[in-house]
Amino acid sequence: MAYLYAVQAVIYKSTGSWYTAKTATGELIQARMKGIFKKDEDITSTNPIAVGDEVRISLEDGEQGTAVITEIAERKNYIVRSSPQGKHKKHIVAANLDQAALVCTVKEPRTSQGFIDRFLVTAAAYHIPVILVFNKQDLYKAKEMEKFEHWQAVYESIGYKVLLTTAGKGEGMDILRDLLKGHTTLISGHSGVGKSTIINQVTGLQLKTKNVSGWSGKGLHTTTFAEMFDLPDGGRLIDTPGVREFGIVDIPKTELSHYFLEMQPYLQHCQFNNCIHLDEPGCAVKEAVEVGKIDMDRYVSYATILVTIEEQLY
Predict the structure, then answer these.
(1) What's the DSSP call for residue 154?
(2) Residue ranges per structural domain of the chain
């Protein structure tokens, strides 16, 4: 196959074998991966190319208007999770992000604090700020509002932005639009939390939406592949398939506490340099938990994630 010319582009959609690349002039081109990337030992993820990647593509000489991806630029950052293909493999969710928005729900389906904390740990490890968007406020009764207000107090005290929205009614969307403007943002969360509805609100698109499965209380998948959308006021939003779990990879247990941001002020005050804040004497983190300076549920999340990290070693 002969090539016409090469151009720079950004990956807007990944379907596994083909990618949609957008050039600086706004042209969308279907591109496939050059075989060398599949064999590159330095790329250990199950997807060497991700949405958000800046690439160089060579246009093929043919009527199809397709191209081959020949180079991947160095990433500013990326966010990964354990791959569905195996707990010892990693999957790059998206690359070159300014921030992430995690869509949560206190009801239908309920987002667990463990899921939230695993996402926040991974984002912190790659220096990606996170906005917590609690959606479906119209379903919250007194009990759910009490839970939300507790989480809001906990996460805002750590430094995270927390929003309360009802995307289906447009409530809270103006604030979210302002936070997204001019940034490349990953949007993630369980299936059924309303990601597609939020994307429709902030982009003006009409993505398909589905209701939560009545018999299971779990969300139904509406997004099959990762895809990036341009925002009307500038910026980009990367949609990802809904995830049931968010598996952590590439974080040693000795470093985990660094990504619980509220623990950072206490780490240098532990008696032992290699303290992992479980059973060691003179642990400043445990002392902070005992006096209420660190939320107990967040500490439980930390201890639970430590166990999963140890299990990955075997």
Answers:
(1) H
(2) 3-72, 78-239, 256-312
| Sign of torsion over alpha carbons 244, 92, 17, 85 | negative
CA pseudo-torsion sign 75, 79, 85, 89: positive
C-alpha distances in Å from residue 174, one per residue of 99, 137, 164, 167, 202: 18, 15, 12, 10, 8
Distance between CA atoms of residues 77 and 48, nearest Å: 14
Assign domain 3-72 one CATH number from 3.40.50.300, 3.30.870.10, 3.30.200.20, 2.40.50.140: 2.40.50.140
* Mean pLDDT, all residues of the chain: 87
Q: If 0-12 CB within 10 Å is exposed, 13-18 middle and 19+ buried, where does residue 116 land?
A: buried
6-16 confidence digits (pLDDT tens):
899 999 998 87
- The pair of structure tokens assigned to 31 is 């591109």
**What is the pLDDT at residue 3?**
59
pLDDT for 211: 53
Residue 180 scores a pLDDT above 60: yes
Please write the tens of the pLDDT for every residue from 17-35: 899 999 999 999 999 987 7
Helices (H), 2-112: 35-39
